[in-house]
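Complex 320.
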Amino acid sequence: MKKILVVGAGGQIGTELVPHLQKNYGHDNVIAADLRPEIVEKLSKTAVAVPLDALDTEAYAETIKKYEVDSIFNLAALLSATGEKNPQLAWKINMGALLNSLNLAKEYGCALFTPSSIGAFGENTPHNKTPQDTVMRPNTIYGVCKVSGELLSDYYHTRFGVDTRSVRFPGIISNGAMPGGGTTDYAVEVFYHAVKTGKYTCEVPEDTYMDMLYMPDALEATTQLMEADPDKLIHRNSFNITSMSFTPKQLFAKIKERIPEFEADYKIDPVKARISASWPDCLDDSCARREWGWNPKWGIDEMVDDMIRACREKLARGEY
Ligand code: AKB
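Predicted structure with 2-amino-3-ketobutyric acid bound:
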């Protein structure tokens, strides 16, 4: 990777992926693109930033040409819970951004990373140690887009030779930008609330297991996979990865060990309850470990310590 374009750079992943890529590949070799002018303005303080609507094929092509881009990270997407509020819009954005990325990657010879998700699985997928290759019949529009995206990305690789690669992200826990509209968002929000008010109301049922990943491991996964030897990749779109799996109740107990006054209660959102129940409890990520050396560093205890520290610092700086 020499010249990298991050599309959707102002979201939860992009906000931290841009500095991670800058560190590895050089400040001027990373172009941060986002649709929202106020976000582009913010990004421009620390990165080469450009306004870009991923659905605007011409503007997308111009950006690739202007900056001589050879690798694209396509992060533009609506998440699972938001997608259920407006399925047509979710299909339009998620598939539109992907199709443009695939066609332009093909035309300009770029490598392409597009995240998939645990949302690609559904109710009749085995929930325990979910295999790499298994039943994928999701019941959300987000999941339908993810499965379609995986198939299309593999198709563009085998049919046109496009270097497409992807991981199935679990919930990503981070302290940069907030996630928005996801089913796993509770595992981020709770830290901000626990540190500020000592209280949190959770919309996901207390005993629902879901896989999670701390952001530093998610960043490492993206660069590690994109740098992996193509001859070793049996799979491409998309690899199961995980580093921890827990329920809301278990996470809140860990927080309470560190903030004894913390109290959580529940006001279940039926959409999030349905989605979270249909997703795996814990993934089998052995293919990623074998094929490109996936080896996460962060477990639940280290992650909880670090999130509390970071949220306390943000609060002290008056950032929320
Ligand atoms: C969501 O909850 O929608 C996302 C995901 C797991 O893909 N965080």
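Residues 79-80, 117-119, 142, 169-171, 179, 182-184 surround 2-amino-3-ketobutyric acid (CB under 6 Å).
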